[in-house]
Predict the 3D structure of the following.
Amino acid sequence: MTAKSYSKRLVQWGASATALGSIFTLIFTLFPSVRIPPRTPPPKLHAAMTHLALEHGMTFGDYRKRTPWLADGPSPADPRELGSVIYFEVTLVGFTNQQCRVTGSVYDAQSQSRVFNLNEISHFTPEAEHDTASSQLWFPFPKKPGSFFVRLALYDHKGVRLTSADSEVFITAVPPANASAHHLRTLPPLQTSYER
């Protein structure tokens, strides 16, 4: 291609672009209701866990009576085993129809080391762009005296951790032969949230 033919093509392309722009201007002038739809921004994602609360001195059997939807599943504990229930609320934005899950672990408050994982997992599938739900998980008393807390973690459908939250610290003064050995100590819990 010679320089002359290349320059001729550029002039033709320029004329075509100008003509096309004039046509669009005429359409938008004659028909003002015609608009190019704006580009939809990607959804804002947000996840949070709040309102953590502990209830002590509940056997697993009593917990099952309170949560009948667990009756057909495998039993992670002896019905007579004494433990606690942690209640929590999950808020999810931008995760519509994506199954998310909450897992938990009991930690030693002094060493910050994990003592054991909770056997149960809570699943959430938001039905709206902005959805909130509450749930609960049972766990047995730690087998040794000390101070402990529960750390919950929220994961998306791909297994990515979105957020975590810590409960208040509870103290076991003696090996847990009965519920009266356990009580709460009020400390500010750590709560985090995920936003993108």
About this structure: The helical segments are 3-30, 60-66. The first strand starts at residue 46 and ends at 59.
